[in-house]
Amino acid sequence: MKAKIFFLSLVAFCALTVQAAVVDTINVRSEAMNKNVQTVIILPGNGKTTSPVIYLLHGYGGNAKTWIGIKPNLPEIADRYGIAFVCPDGKNSWYWDSPVDPSYRYETFVSKELIDYIDANYPTVKDRKGRAITGLSMGGHGAMWLSLRHKDIFGAAGSTSGEVDIRPFPNNWNMSERLGKESENQEIWDNHTAINQIDRLNNGDLALIIDCGYSDFFFEVNNDFHKKLLKYKIDHDFIVRPGAHNGEYWRNSIDYQILFFKNFFEKGNRK
At residue 6, does pLDDT exceed 60? Predict the structure, then answer.
């Protein structure tokens, strides 16, 4: 009897060991910015199974470890769904290639250099059908900005509490340092806001999900983003619920987005 119990315990231990997600903090070289960029990567299982990837972008004032701090059970989710997560440090870049500061080229980094590095060094699905991108606040803007401009790279995208239209907030969050003062650079601001990228889309180009809490100061711009998608007849999920611009909301909202992306990945595999 004792031998049987020991054997069952050993099997359970081995199963847990095999399924334990790999969490690593790495430095990814950006030639465009001539520096290394800290990135947290979470791989399901033992890190050897080919996995689709969700790129998670942090908000203003955040860093590569923001998402693992907000959602500590991301490794468990990675194991459960067989999905990898990649969380780069985007500084306060808004994920643009800044037209006024060449040291900020985060569009090039995330959409090209980071993708190439991850696909070259980890067992990932090396196709847009296995890539999604989302983020919170500034990262929600970044995810929309990057996905709408790089549909060949990302197959699905999301935003939670995203500043999907920057123009109502011209004096906030260092945006003028990246774009120049809004009052003097209106065309640049118009060209660098996510909502004005929607006309690049045809229906079906991207699987899209956006959400925002009713009490969030970005609720109106998210509602406007939703209305413009409707105007252009772009299918998307738009989720609104009680909540503010905080970690409690994001811990909940990201679960829905991960399920949305999981379904997208599975649909792609069935084709």
Answer: no
What's the rounded Cα separation, in Å, for the pair 82 and 51? 6
Q: What local confidence, expressed as pLDDT, does residue 269 receive?
A: 67
Given a cut of 70, whether residue 160 has pLDDT beyond it is yes
Q: What's the CA gap between 23 and 19, in Å, rounded? A: 12
pTM of the model as a whole: 0.91
Return the structure tokens found at 85: 């997560």
Amino acid at 120: A
Asked if pLDDT for residue 2 goes beyond 80, the answer is: no
Farthest CA pair distance, the chain: 80
- Comparing C-alpha atoms, which of 201, 164, 191, 129 is closest to residue 57? 164
Q: What share of the chain is helix, strand, coil (3-state, %, to 5)?
A: 45, 20, 35
97 CB neighbour count, 10 Å cutoff: 18
Residue 268 backbone dihedrals phi, psi, to 5 degrees? -65, -35
List Cβ neighbours of 249 (8 Å cut-off, separation of 6 or more): 160, 161, 213, 216, 243
- pLDDT value for 271: 52
Neighbour order of strands in the sheet with 53-57: 22-30, 35-43, 84-88, 53-57, 131-135, 156-160, 207-213, 237-241
CA angle 73, 77, 83 (to 5 degrees): 135
- Written as one letter, the residue type at 266 is E
- Other beta carbons less than 10 A from residue 83's beta carbon: 23
Distance CA 178, CA 145 (A): 15
CA distances from residue 104 to 27, 50, 147, 216, 247 in whole angstroms, order as listed: 17, 32, 18, 28, 27
pLDDT, tens digit, for every residue of 21-66? 899 999 999 999 999 999 999 999 866 679 999 999 999 999 999 9
* Partners of 213 in beta bridges: 241
